[in-house]
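Hey,
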Amino acid sequence: MASAEAIPTEEKPPGFTHREIMATMSGLVIAMLLAMLDNMIVAPALPTIVGDLGGLNHLAWVTTGYILASTVATPIWGKLGDLYGRRMTFIASISIFLVGSALCGMSQNMGELIGFRALQGLGAGGLMVGVMSVMAEIVPARERGKYQGVLMAVMPAAMIGGPLAGGYITDHLTWRWAFYVNLPLGVAALAVCWFTLAKLSRGTGKVRIDWTGTALLSTWITALVLITSWGGNEYDWDSAMIIGLAVLTVAAFVAFVFVERRAAEPIMPLSVFNNRNFSLAGTLSFIVGFALFGGITFLPQFQQFVQGSSATNSGLLLLPMMLASMAMSMGGGAIISRTGHYRALPIAGTILMAAGLALFATMGTGTSRGMTSLYMVVLGAGMGCLMQTTMLIAQNNAPLRNMGAATGAATFLRNMGGSLGVSLLGSIYTSALTDSLTSHSGGAAGSSSVHVAQMTPQALRSLPEAAQHLFQQAVTDGIDKVFAWGAVVSALGLIVALFIRHTPLRGFGDAKPAESKEAPVLQTAE
């Protein structure tokens, strides 16, 4: 663990004027749009992708592979930014993302798609952490809310354009363009970032890569996600494979902690977790990731298979959740900048998020689109209260020298929640759907000539009415269980939020960051 002497007593950010900040943010906006559009465009296309390539059992891995790779890469990109400077690492992450996007569009089977999505995720891990780290370097926490409002302006374009583009591409072109569309936008992002980020610092100059910590981090995360994906599905929970993965997870995690405490430049400085607010904000980020990716990944299944929406319409039907999230995020950022207070937002956010997921768990085959939209507004409002606030709290309790690593750690926890959420909820969804079909199978099920693993919304509509109803009920049973478990996890977030203390948001000129009895080492001037 870093000692007090290892942290500079005086940390000076690069001097950026308001005009330079806005110019720099133009590159960040394009990069954020790139990251957001990918999730929004791919989600409506998933049912068709899985049906075209085959493999319902691998549905979750199309998203899990992406999130898992992004999760592993996030703290690495954050630390590389601290060491080499944020400009080159940010540009490198965009480049890897674009290569992965092109290869995803050329996939011929589910195995290739999952692998290339993982490559795409490696680059994506540097996009969001890069945006947040650059923001933290050029804008003090006390003023960051008003500038975040500019970043949030990109959300309507992603939320409206993404689902619409994804659905239109799926319905009228081919799902492969859901990945190819990233290429022109990515080239523009590369060009803008090359010039606007030139003034950023070039890092500490201490070029030491914690390869051992990186390998151990990748090992225990991957093993843990495999447990949640395979347990009770591919393998019994008491099988040798699952038990072996559990042992590997624990051993690699213990070794990771041991290595990180002694590494000269740890990939994830554990000292930041000594701060109470940082740890609590990270835990909430985990819960938000669990709920967010779970909702976006599985909700289109219900909309397309049960409610009969096209891919285009199912994408647009996600808008109430996204717009509510945007409105609450921008409104919360403005309130924080004006008042400096933020503690009420995480509490309100966890209550709304748990309530929204609980409402989704009550859906049936007769639930209307209007009622579903209302549930989305509740869930989206909760997410909007949490997403930006948790990152702001985490950054406010980390020293500027380790801002990239700290931002990476916070983003890592959010992505980790998404990885485990999608894999665990995906296993629950598949198991519940299969069990429902098995328990209710009869003449209608036997008449189906289309294998469940290759079922698409178009194929479902060609089946007899009895067979359609059987499959729709199975999808509903799976969705209800997914959201019920998501609500339980989100409810735990309220307990976490109640323990967050208000500490003043600091500016670059402050004598020291927010106080923390748990982390005296962080009591340094910034």
